[in-house]
Amino acid sequence: MSNQAFIDGQNLYNNTKSNNWKIDLKKFRVYLKEKYKVENAYYFIGYMTEDNQQLYESIQKAGYILIFREHNQKMLGKKKGNVDTDIVFSILSRIIDKEDFEKVVLVSGDGDYFKTVKYLIEKNRFAKLLAPNRNSTSSLYKRFTPKYVDFLDTPGIKRKIKI
């Protein structure tokens, strides 16, 4: 059976950029499929604007299912992505609805996912947390390293997925 990946797009982008490197999304999609048997990779991103249409198309062409954060019209342009709740909801609703997948791969180093990760580990539904940058990953995940946590800036992984 296959796994599903849930990617915090803003966390991935900001935490690789701050380390002066970029992920090749096509290579990363292949890595997720080959290493973690990821069938569907959901890429969560902040609100949609026409200015970023080319970015959205490139993410989809690389093999990701793009999911946008819903915002009240009055708040557009004032909020950052804040996709954390959407990702948690998406993961748990897919499990409750008994979608046909085995485990979750989460791409983020954000500590807001800690309780969800802990719960999924307890229920044997968690494969791996892939944190973009070891230096900005929440210390909450230290107890799960290395079995459930890996870092995309590890030289061997970075070499496979960088531009």
In short:
With 163 residues, this protein is an alpha/beta fold. It is built from 6 helices and 6 strands; from the N terminus they run βααβαβαβαββα.
What does this structure look like?
The chain is α/β, with parallel strands linked by helices and 163 residues long. The protein has a single domain, classed as Rossmann fold (3-Layer(aba) Sandwich). It has six helices and six strands. The protein has helices spanning 9-17, 25-36, 53-61, 84-96, 114-122, 155-161, and strands at residues 3-8, 38-45, 65-68, 104-107, 126-131, 149-151. Strands 3-2-1-4-5-6 form a six-stranded parallel sheet, sandwiched between helices. Strand 2, helix 3 and strand 3 form a beta-alpha-beta unit. 30% of the residues are buried.
Keywords:
Rossmann fold; 6-stranded parallel β-sheet; globular; alpha/beta; 6 strands
What's the layout of helices and strands?
Blueprint: E1 3-8, H1 9-17, H2 25-36, E2 38-45, H3 53-61, E3 65-68, H4 84-96, E4 104-107, H5 114-122, E5 126-131, E6 149-151, H6 155-161
Parallel strand pairs: 1-2, 1-4, 2-3, 4-5, 5-6
| Radius of gyration computed on alpha carbons | 15 Å
Order the strands across the largest sheet as they lie in space.
3-2-1-4-5-6
Low-confidence segments, given as residue ranges, are: none
The proportion of residues forming helix, as a percent range, comes to 25-40%
Strand content: 15-25%
Helix/strand structural class: alpha/beta
> In the CATH hierarchy, what is the superfamily?
5'-nuclease
Mean pLDDT, as a whole number? Answer: 92
Question: What would you say the CATH architecture is?
Answer: 3-Layer(aba) Sandwich
CATH structural fold name: Rossmann fold
CATH C-level class is Alpha Beta
Rounded to the nearest angstrom, the distance between the terminal CA atoms is: 30 Å
Order of secondary-structure elements: EHHEHEHEHEEH
Number of helices: 6
How would you sum up the global shape? globular
How many strand segments?
6
Major beta sheet summary: 6 strands, parallel
How many domains in all? 1
